[in-house]
Design goal:
alpha+beta; 5 helices; globular; SnoaL-like domain-containing protein; NTF2-like_dom_sf; TAT_signal; SnoaL-like
């Protein structure tokens, strides 16, 4: 019987192999038998656990006051969010679309953590792609995060569908 593996399963396997090889090399063992999480990797794992809880306010403790979170693309949620309140507002919008994330691979070097994860929507369903994030950590807080989408065109289409701008007369009336 042949088992069907999802893209996330395959990437997770590759990530585990890469982490084991890197950890083995750094520890001088040449094997993956002794892997210890870098403190910044642990921080990002804890962040993802809080994110999975669906409690946007629980994310506050992970963010530096001057955090900068950059979302790529040409859609209503793209751009750089500055400060905790803007970043939490962004996550509140993602929560409206039932956005989920499943970490595949995490690695740290100094102040940086690189993350590869599956990100998908549930309301409406339709976006399911691989994302990479570069997190910069300072004093056990995320001070910067830069997202990279595996399929930016798909992300742009989804976000325009899920977060349309109000019609022009309504937008102009708000000024």
């Amino acid at each position: 019987m042949t088992e069907h593996l999802s893209r996330a399963d395959v990437l997770r396997g590759l990530g585990a192999t890469a982490v084991g090889v890197v950890a083995g090399s750094l520890l001088g063992t040449g094997t993956a038998s002794a892997t210890v999480d870098h403190p910044n990797v642990k921080l990002i794992k804890d962040y993802y656990a809080a994110y999975a809880s669906g409690d946007v306010a629980a994310l506050r403790r992970f963010f530096a006051d001057d955090i900068r979170w950059t979302i790529p693309g040409h859609h209503p949620l793209s751009g750089t969010k500055v400060g905790i309140d803007e970043v939490l507002a962004f996550f509140a919008e993602l929560a409206e679309a039932g956005f989920r994330a499943e970490p595949i691979f995490l690695a740290a070097d100094g102040d940086w953590v690189v993350d590869l994860h599956r990100g998908w929507s549930t309301r409406p369903a339709g976006l399911d792609i691989t994302w990479a994030l570069a997190f910069r950590i300072r004093a056990r807080r995320i001070v910067e995060a830069v997202n990279f989408a595996a399929d930016q065109h798909a992300a742009d289409r989804f976000f325009w569908q899920a977060y349309p701008l109000a019609p022009i007369p309504n937008r102009l009336a708000a000024r």
